[in-house]
Each structure stands twice: as C-alpha cells, then as structure tokens.
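Complex record, two chains
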Amino acid sequence: MTVPSLPRPSAAVRAGGRPRRRLRGDAPAAWALLAPSLAGILAFLVLPILVVVWLSLSRWDLLSPIRFVGLDNWVEVLTDGRLGHSLLVTVLFVLMVIPLQTALGLAMALLLSRGLPGSWFFRVVYVVPWICAPLALGVVWRWIFSPYGGALNALLGTDVEWLSDPDLALPVVAAVSIWSQVGYTTLFFMAGLAGIPTQVLEAAALDGAGAWSTFWRIKLPLLGPTTFFVLVTGVIASFQAFDQIYALTPNGGPQGATDVIATRIYLEAFQGGFNLGGASVMALVLFAVLVVVTLLQQRFFAGRVTYDLS
Amino acid sequence: MSARSAAPAISRRTVLGSAVGLGAAATVAGCSPAAQQEAPTGGASGTTRTVTVRLWDEQVEKAYRASFDAFTAKNPDIRVETTLVAYADYFTKLRTDVAGGNAEDLFWVNGSYIQPYIDNGNLMEIGADFDAQRGEWIQPAVEQYTRDGVLWGVPQLTDGGIAIYYNAELVEAAGLTPQDLTDLTWVPGGGSGDTFLPVLQQLTEDASGRRGDESGFDGTKPGTWGYSAAQDLQGIYYNFVGSAGGAFQQPDGTFVFDSPEGRDAFGYVVDLINTHRVAPAASNTNDNGDFTRDQFLQGKIALFQSGIYNLKNVADGADFEWGIVPIPAGPAGRVSVVNNIVVAGNAATADREATTRVLQWLGSAEGASYIGAEGAALPAVTGAQQAFSDYWAEQDVDPGQFAEQGQLPSISAPTGQNYGAALTAWKPFFDEMFLGRTPVDEALAEAQAAANEAING
C-alpha cells in the first residue's frame, strides 16, 4: 500500500533557526507572559495542595483553632476500614463504568461518523446529558428510580428498590454515570475518526479490506491517542465521581454500597464531625492512587500508541 | 517622523513590570473576600448600614421581609437582608461560612447544633441590652439556649408539641370519624389494648382496595397508607421513645436509646412499616424527609404526624378537608418532643450596634408579630402569639392541639457538642433498621455505640 508522505519540517525550522543569544534575550518576556497563568496555578492549584497537606497533619473542625497533630490523622485513616472500603467501592465503580462507557462511546462514534440521515440530531442528543448539571440530573434520576411513584417501576410494573438494595445501588449509579458521560466519549472518538487520513482508508479499501478488518486493523490502532486520552480522563473522572452519586444515594448508599472515595471525603469533611484532617488524608491518598493509575495507563499505552497518522 | 516614533517611549522593562503588576493585582483581587461576595456586614461609616439574616424557613422568610420593612421604616439607617438556605444543607453551609468569615450577622440555629458555636465563641451573648425583653420570651426557649447563666440567642419560634394532621375524606371513607382518632393508645408489640394499630389498618388500603385489616391485603402494592411512620426524629420516633417512657439522650449528651423502652418504641414503629405495612416503605423515606408530607398533601396518607412547623404547608397545600388530633398515648402517656428556634448574633459581625438593634427588633412583640400574622410559625415571643391565633382563627383552623401537647410531659430535644457527627454515625444503622433488614435490638445497640463514640469526639 502506497501512502503519499506529508512534507517534513527542515532541520533549520526544527531547531528554531535563531541564535541562542536571542533566546536568552526573550526569556524575561516569556516569563512575563507566563506570569499571570503561573500566578493562577500557584494560588489556585499549588497552594491548595499545600494547604491540604498541612491539614492532613492537623486537627480542625472549622470552628476550633487548627492544632498540629503530626501523623495522627494518617494513622487513624489508614487503620480505619472505611477508607479501604471506599477505595474498593470506587475501583468497582470504575471497572463498571470505564469499559462500557468507552465501548459505547466508540460504537456511537462509528455510527455517527457514517453520515447517515439525522446523525446531527443524535450528536446533539448524546451530548446533552454531559452538558447538564450532574446534581440536577441526579435528582431527576432519583425520581426515576424511586420505589413508589418512580418512572422505571411504573414502566416495568415492578416494585424494585433500585437505590436501597445493596446489590443494585452501585450498578444503578454506574449506569447513570455511563449515560451522562458517554456523549463526551463519543465526541472524542468522532474527532479521532475524523483525523484518520482518508487516503489510508481508501488504500485499505483498494487492498480489499472489509469493514470489520478496517476497524480492527486501521481505525482502532490509529485511534490509539484518542483511546489513551479518553481512558485517562475517564478513569480520573470516575475515581473523582461525586455529585450524581451523592444526589442518588446521599449517605454512601445502603450498607455503604455506593460509598465511593469522593463521597467519603465529603462526608468526613462536611457532614457531622467536620474532620478536615481525616478528609485531607483521604484526598491525598486519592491523589496518589490517581497518579499511580495514570502512570500505569501511560506505561501500557507507551508502545501501543502511534501519533503518526501518515 | 513616524507615528510610532512619536509615541512616548515604552521600554520592555516597563511592559514586563506592568504585566507582572497586573497579574499580581488580579491574583490579590481574586483572593480578597470582597471579590468573592459582597461584604455581608455594613460599616458604621456609611449612611445606610446593612445587616444580614440567614434562616431556613421559606414561610418565615416572607414574614421577616415584612417585619424588616417595618424595622427600616423606623430605623432608616439600617437595611436588613435575608438569606434562605435549605434545611438539608443549612448547618453544613453555616459552619463553613462561619469558618470562612462569610456568615450573616444573624442566623437561625436550633438546639441540636448550637453547642459548638457557643464553645468556640462564635455567638454574641444576649446580655444586658436585652434585659427589658427577656420576660416577653417563652421560658422553655430561654432555658433551652442558656448555658451557665448566659443566653445565646433570641427566641424566635416554638414548635409546641407534635400532633397528627388527618385527611377527613380518607377517615370518613374508612368508616371512622375524627372522634375515633382523639384518644388512641399504642402498646409495645401491638395486641391487647392497642387501639392505634387497628385504626391505622382500617385507614390503609392496598392497590386493589383491600383494607389493612382485611384478608388478602397486599401491603407491598399500596394504595393509601394509614400513617406517616418514618425515620423522622422530631415528628415520629422521639415521641414514641418518650411515650414508651424512655429517653434518647441524657442531659450530658450520652445516647441511651438502646433501652427496653427504646426497643419497644422502635420495634413498634418498624413493625408499622414492615410488618403491618400501614406506612410507606423506608426506601421512600430514609433519604427523603418530605416524602410523607408530600404524600399526605396528595391524599395518599390518612394520618400525618408532624409539628406546627408544617401547619402553613398543610393549609396551603391540602385540597381536602383536614383537621388536627393528638398523637397516640404510649405506656408513659402522650409524650412529645418540644423544640424552639433562636436567632443568634454572629460574634464576628462588623457592626455590633446595628446587629443588636435588629436582634432587639426580632425579640420584640412588634417585630415577631409578623411571623404569626401570616400564620407562618408560632412565635416564641409571648406578645406576638396572639397574631398567630388570630390568623388561624380567620382561616377556621384551630392549632391549639400543638400548644396543648406542649404542656404535657416532653422528651428533651437533641443536643451536644458533636451532635451532627453522632447523627451521621447512627443514621446508617437506623436506615437498615427502618428498612427491616437489621433486627431492632441489633441496630439500636450498634447505632448507640457509634453515636456515643461520635458525640464524645
């Protein structure tokens, strides 16, 4: 298969083509241009993280004076079973959400990219849940799943307690999460599909590749960067999922079935005991878990993703 | 000479300096409280000072607005603004706002949550400035919010006792009269001497029209419920614990509901829901405190047990004939929780003088009369209560049952330094108990242990 190659940048352009002295002279201007955003990052990202680290070493209930307690909060939280339970529930939630959300997003993107009549309508419809306020959607879904007078039971003619049954609560909130996020995933896959050079697909067709073969051997490999991005952002978002789950099952669900880590952090910090120190420890643990998971994903995709679509 | 060269020379250093300065200024401005929200308190230097008030009751907020208009007419130098926060989030938001210095000058607080604010010096003492008014406030409210001889809020509302709102049409359809509801008794475990359960069964209908006391009744497919039993602290279970002769908390805050009386009371309520099915399943009510009220207003619940705080909602929302009868008596008689609400002054207010004047207004018969004038709630200022009675007399409603219940023996309202933490700790166990998934004895034991651990910090 012959594919015309795109012109490559010359060595001079790649090197910048300007003397090093000139670069040094531009440094102050570059710093000045970066300063506003750097200040924002320092004030609203780095500083809050440092505050959380400090709070994790302190006892504070919002009203009493902050008291330094060393590693007491860390010991308490790490030896308490609730953090482990919440992490387990979160991992289960992520495992339920990510594969289905990604597969459905890809499937819908493939369908919508075929240019069938009315595709524009479905493109809009799929994205609507993603752009709506998650808490408001959670309230609507809560009514849908309500055991008495709920739309779903009325439709099915059943009396299922969707949100108060410990076996059903987590799959139900996972389904709502997938429903609300799948449009976002679809958008990215559509963009990825649009970025595949037509000449590659034409060449595959000329070589006799069928639709199935084209998907597995051409489209899916070339969607690698998109898949990587969708998975990384999806996993992070699922680990941090809070608002819809809280709206559907406010106190961690029946027998803690939906007590995901973000809900646990909120309950620890703002419900009842106002244990800001313990909540900060949990937030830092979540941060560490996300870094590890993201690095693992990066490592997995490192040799499998090509950014060269030529 | 080109236009460019004619302009004042601006060096790169000047541009860089300006950029950095602008960035820093923007950052500082972004961090200042004034940029986040309008300053909540007025300063003494302005011609018009603003005092802000936070509360959770929509009906009373309307009354407050009328009251503050009258106040400003008499005190043109002070304007009063109200902020309404839903009760579900009220105490979470209040705590974060007090911590962040963004709380209003005055805010409502109840007995369950006031203690940490007292302990941490967040409230203004109701001191000598109010001596002339003290006699006008109902004594139980003053006692409830006094610690070591210091009062920490101006009494605003009193709930009296708890009573039962009934749907006259459903009562009549069940072959009963309101008189049949006025002297009911519940007995632990039901059975001999229990006149409450048979009435509830008579009032309950399944989807196919069978009454709760008829054979073939299928409570899993409800049509109409007889009663509003639910995990409702003030409206339901405190009263059952009290009328069983038990206590929920000791004066020092220790929880003692895992007692023989507590087991009798909770066992009875849980059976009403899960065994006799005369009340909605707890899956509807555990996380939705308004479910029973809403179903009552929709004509789906015959007897709705609640407080005077729902009187206006019932009067405005019910499109059927309704009335008020006493709660059932238990082994220890007819015992109800009595609660009062105060408005507290924020110790961090920037204008203590103006805040004190507004507090004095709210504690006066004239200022509080607006609460009663629209029937929004029963004022805790004695001289303002007549307006409440007059309003409801005009509506042909007699709310006297709440006051009568308030005169009977009562069970103490919840309190404690870490009450919120205790509530969060016991709720999961209560959820399972009300759902009928954990036996009452087991759930109460676990809930009490968790609550006591939390209340002690």
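Note: Chain A has two domains: 17-56, 74-302.
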